[in-house]
Amino acid sequence: MTTARAHVDTLSEGEGPKLRLSSGAADETSLAEIKNVEAYRDEWQQLIDTKLVEWGRNPRQLEEDDLVAPSVDSVEVACQVAMYFRDDGAPSPDWVVPNGDGGIVFERSLGTLTKTLEVLQDGSIESIDYRDSKIIRRERIL
Q: Whole-angstrom distance between the N-terminal and C-terminal Cα of the chain?
């Protein structure tokens, strides 16, 4: 997800948002080439099965004082995002964590660049790029 880009194709009633996400992560010189794409697929599937599905089944397991567990909407959208990247062969994230406000954050770092994709409590998505811990791009995707 280091260079992931996302765009909304359509928003149609009844079907929910349809995203066109392209990872842009693999080229001749990238670290993505080193690892087998099938291994990324397996890591995404493991993430979906062991974290996201479990968080959706029992969100209360993540509740603590002053922390809100991921909402049903954020878990659903996070699963859709994860399935897209899994099917696209994108590198798996370094971290996937609840944001404490009812959402979920995907994070991937490469050197001084960090990319986050945050699914907010309402299911909307925000993408933020950091270089040396400073925001260099912030975009509301959905």
A: 17
What's residue 60's pLDDT? 73
Is the pTM higher than 0.70? The answer reads: yes
Are 115 and 127 in contact by the 8 Å Cβ rule? The answer is yes
Amino acid residing at 30: S
Where b means 16+ CB within 10 Å and e means fewer, 48-64 reads beebbeebbeebeeeee
Q: Which tens digit of pLDDT belongs to each residue from 112-126?
A: 999 999 999 999 999
Closest CA to 139 of 43, 88, 124, 109: 124
Return d(Cα 75, Cα 130) in angstroms, integer. Answer: 24
Q: How far is 53 from 110, CA to CA, in rounded Å?
A: 27
What is the dihedral sign for C-alpha 33, 21, 126, 63?
negative
